[in-house]
């Protein structure tokens, strides 16, 4: 009797696992269809509006030649209060550096992810102040997620180097030099090994991740036990989904060469919190080197990460794992549509 009951329990467990697996696979197929239907912006470039002249400015696409040295992409969702200070610090740094080096040209792309507060107004105030050639705003209309906001900004930027950074200013903007210098060092080695220096930095796929891993011991000592438990569990799931090699996937301070951004952001599918993990997976698929660099980071009040966010992260990583391992999510090395 006990053996029959055990057998029945095992059969039920397998059935439940199968149903869950089929449900997850179905979800992946649906998400893939949604993503394929969401590439309208790849065919028709969005228009940037110049609030000073009210003229429309065509924006480029990631396959176009670079026109700036660096692009900074700032995703913003209900950031009316935190965005001004972060942008002031960013613009002060960029202007100061540009004043010392004529070859240092830049743009800041603020992607308003369907904010319901005054984020749009704040963003356009900066466009008026610094001109549309230096600051541009992408309006998504409705909230689509941080990953999608960054993807849109990356696809329509003009830089040889592209930096994503959070709207709260948690990482000091001048830390971009740490990432930049490491990318330049890797590019130099590649040129030396190939015996050819004709390629520009924008043509060599390299990724640099800002990292808070050096702060982990302090965080473990100050956080509540359940937050540490969730963090460790999340790290384990990331390891299973994307593999080893990156200690901190979630720091919102990452730099890409134009060639790397072209490969990664024309393929990425996850729209919200776990797009960073997918970036790691895709970088490994393409053999793009990932450099992890410690950056200055501080806790800024107003974090949008919640228990629901963590559950969404786990769901997204499940979608990603099933999507790629079953071959439902296709990866293109030259995806233009």
Short description:
This protein is 48% helix and 14% strand.
Describe the protein's architecture and organization.
About 50% of the residues lie in helices and about 15% in strands. The protein is of the alpha/beta class and about 325 residues long. It has a single domain (about 45-320), classed as Spore Coat Polysaccharide Biosynthesis Protein SpsA, Chain A. The strands form 2 sheets. It has a 7-stranded mixed beta sheet with strand order 5-4-3-6-8-7-9, with helices on both faces. Strands 1-2 form a two-stranded antiparallel ribbon.
Q: What's the total count of β strands?
A: 9
> What class, by secondary structure content?
alpha/beta
The biggest sheet amounts to:
7 strands, mixed
* CATH H-level superfamily title: Spore Coat Polysaccharide Biosynthesis Protein SpsA, Chain A
Task: Outline the secondary-structure elements.
Elements: H1 2-36, H2 40-43, E1 47-49, E2 56-58, E3 68-76, H3 83-100, E4 106-112, H4 119-130, E5 135-139, H5 146-155, E6 159-164, H6 176-194, E7 207-211, H7 216-222, H8 225-242, E8 254-257, H9 258-265, H10 275-286, E9 290-294, H11 307-325
Parallel strand pairs: 3-4, 3-6, 4-5, 7-9
Antiparallel strand pairs: 1-2, 6-8, 7-8
Helix pairs in contact: 1-11, 8-11, 9-10
């Amino acid at each position: 009797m006990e053996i029959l009951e055990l057998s029945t329990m095992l059969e039920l467990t397998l059935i439940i696992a199968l149903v869950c697996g089929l449900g997850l696979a179905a979800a992946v197929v649906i998400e893939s269809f949604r993503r394929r239907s969401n590439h309208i912006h790849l065919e028709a470039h969005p228009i940037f509006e110049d609030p000073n002249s009210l003229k429309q400015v065509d924006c480029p696409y990631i396959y176009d030649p670079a026109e700036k040295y660096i692009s900074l992409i700032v995703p913003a969702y209900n950031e009316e209060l935190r965005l001004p200070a972060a942008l002031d610090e960013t613009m002060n740094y960029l202007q100061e550096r540009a004043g010392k080096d004529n070859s240092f040209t830049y743009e800041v792309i603020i992607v308003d992810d369907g904010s319901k507060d005054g984020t749009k107004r704040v963003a356009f105030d900066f466009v008026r102040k610094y001109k549309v050639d230096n600051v541009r705003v992408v309006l998504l209309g409705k909230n689509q997620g941080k990953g999608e906001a960054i993807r849109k900004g990356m696809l329509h930027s003009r830089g040889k180097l592209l930096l994503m950074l959070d709207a709260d200013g948690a990482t000091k903007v001048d830390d971009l030099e740490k990432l930049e210098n490491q990318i330049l060092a890797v590019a130099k080695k590649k040129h030396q090994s190939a015996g050819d220096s004709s390629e520009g930095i924008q043509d060599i796929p390299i990724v640099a991740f800002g990292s808070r891993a050096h702060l982990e011991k302090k965080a473990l000592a100050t956080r509540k036990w359940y937050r540490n438990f969730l963090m460790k569990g999340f790290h384990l799931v990331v390891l299973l989904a994307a593999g080893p090699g990156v200690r901190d996937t979630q720091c919102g301070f990452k730099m890409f060469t134009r060639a790397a951004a072209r490969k990664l952001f024309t393929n990425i599918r996850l729209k919200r919190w776990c797009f960073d993990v997918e970036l790691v997976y895709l970088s490994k698929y393409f053999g793009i080197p990932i450099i992890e660099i410690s950056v200055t980071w501080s806790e800024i009040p107003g974090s949008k990460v919640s228990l629901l966010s963590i559950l969404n992260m786990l769901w997204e990583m499940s979608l990603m794992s099933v999507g790629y391992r079953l071959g439902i999510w296709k990866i293109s090395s030259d995806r233009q549509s």
